[in-house]
Write a structure and sequence with these properties.
Elements lengths: L1 H22 L8 H4 L13 H20 L2 H19 L2 H20 L4 H21 L4 H23 L7 H10 L11 H6 L6 H29 L10 H4 L6 H32 L17 H8 L1 H19 L2 H27 L4 H32 L6 H22 L10 H11 L4
Helix pairs in contact: 1-3, 1-10, 3-10, 4-8, 5-6, 5-7, 5-8, 7-8, 7-15, 10-12, 12-17, 14-15, 15-16, 16-17
Length: 447
């Protein structure tokens, strides 16, 4: 009965969205979190009635094939389906070029315990190949860098898993994990071991049913966000998603913060809907991954956002970066800052590197600001401060209840401030660094 309810939710949400698209001036814009992770000209998966019908038909075909087929058929269904999805968002030149890089990385992984020199050689060839492809081949370099950043994380996790004793690697799972998994749009990160072991670890019908539920839920969530935006905050859009781009010279201190909270509100809701859509599609193909979103609206601190809204991504950082560094340094703060530094570096390579080639002369400065000011300093120090408060005050039974409530309120306020300001930094096609800094100073009363 629960499985039937899940499919009914999918059908009902699809009918509602189709009705809005056909009979109203409903404008289903790109969710911010997905838009910046694809390309400037791609069409969103569900922004026309035809796309909705195609999505429902594709789900029916995939579920039918996987239900009646054996594991071999399910594996190749995943390859064909997820590769097709990536080809929908990215050009064939990008995917073909990445396949060349994949060959060298796969060989490096196979040689990692057999020959150190061959491992290093294959890694160097992969790096050289990726650089030559980026420089010389005519293609969307933004898309290429975006997926290459995911590849770095995927390959690194596979190397660590092999170092920890994982013997068997499936070439199909590696390809899907490094390039074709929808979380490769930089929304969800999994280690290879977690990803590969999730493939049909339960009965497929239950997995597919949960996937259909998440897709249906995401359609309703994204529709709701869009309707709220249209009637309450029409100046917000996927190209104006920063305070600096909606602010005017006459805005007061309070109105700037109001802009910030509205933008943060829509960003969080769109993030929830987008992640549920991507995860639902992944479940349809048989990867029984853990839920990424768990009561994100209940988050009351900076780190709580990571626990509730980025579960699998957070576990990736803990398993593959935080814990290895912690075992070496025995210092939780150095380990935490290292995570944010690495995250900032890779994110800047993916999001900002293309601007160096195409857009603005100050893009290099913006990239380093994204790495150090946004991630290493702001996000890193915020998380270190929260860990310090948790360890020395909130977990201390001898501290007063009033002090603990005051500190929790402080952490809640810090969370909003950090995310509002953090949303301002980084490569922004609509404003310069100087304009962004002026708005941020004004938000703190400095004109």
């Amino acid at each position: 009965m629960q499985k039937l309810k899940n499919y009914l939710i999918l059908i009902a949400s699809a009918i509602i969205l189709m009705s809005l698209l056909i009979w109203t001036p409903f404008n289903f814009n790109f969710p911010t979190s997905l838009y910046y992770k694809v390309s400037w000209k791609s069409q969103f998966l569900i922004n026309t009635p035809f796309h909705i019908l195609f999505l429902l038909l594709a789900i029916f075909v995939v579920v039918s094939l996987n239900y009646w087929g054996n594991k071999i058929i399910r594996r190749w269904t995943a390859v064909a389906g997820l590769s097709a999805i990536m080809l929908y968002f990215f050009t064939w030149q990008v995917m073909t070029s990445l396949f060349v890089v994949y060959i060298f990385l796969y060989l490096a992984l196979m040689f990692s315990h057999k020959s150190t020199w061959l491992f290093i050689l294959c890694c160097l060839l992969a790096i050289l190949g990726s650089c030559l492809i980026y420089i010389y081949l005519p293609m969307n370099r933004y898309s290429y860098l975006l997926l290459l950043g995911q590849t770095v994380f995927g390959f690194y996790s596979a190397v660590i898993d092999k170092h920890r004793g994982l013997k068997d690697f499936d070439a199909i799972h590696l390809w899907l994990h490094w390039f074709c998994f929808p979380g490769g749009l930089f929304t969800i990160l999994y280690g290879y071991k977690t990803f590969a072991e999730s493939f049909h670890k339960r009965e497929y019908t239950a997995i597919a049913s949960n996937g259909s539920y998440l897709i249906g839920l995401s359609l309703l969530q994204l529709m709701t966000v869009q309707l709220i935006q249209i009637y309450t905050f029409p100046e917000y859009s996927f190209l104006r998603n920063k305070v600096v781009t909606v602010a005017t010279a006459h805005d007061t201190f309070y109105s700037l913060w109001l802009h910030g909270f509205k933008i943060l509100f829509f960003f969080i809701l769109e993030q929830i809907g987008t992640i549920n859509l991507l995860q639902g599609i992944t479940l349809i193909f048989g990867y029984d991954v853990d839920r990424q979103i768990h009561g994100l609206w209940k988050a009351n601190s900076f780190l709580d956002v990571w626990k509730r809204g980025s579960y699998n991504t957070r576990m990736y950082w803990i398993n593959y970066i935080y814990m290895p560094i912690l075992l070496k340094t025995k210092n939780i703060y150095i380990s935490d800052l290292s995570v944010w530094l690495i995250y900032g570096f890779i994110a800047s390579m993916a999001y900002g590197g293309i601007n160096v080639f195409y857009v603005k002369p100050d893009s290099i400065t913006e990239i380093w600001i994204t790495i150090f000011l946004k991630h290493f300093i702001m996000y890193g120090l915020a998380s270190c401060l929260e860990m310090y408060i948790n360890k020395n005050y909130l977990m201390n039974k001898n501290k007063s209840t009033y002090l603990k409530y005051g500190l929790r309120l402080f952490l809640l306020a810090l969370m909003f401030i950090i995310y509002i300001i953090g949303n301002e930094f980084g490569p922004n096609p609509n404003s310069t660094i100087g304009e962004t800094m002026i708005i941020i100073l004004r938000m703190f009363g400095v004109s």
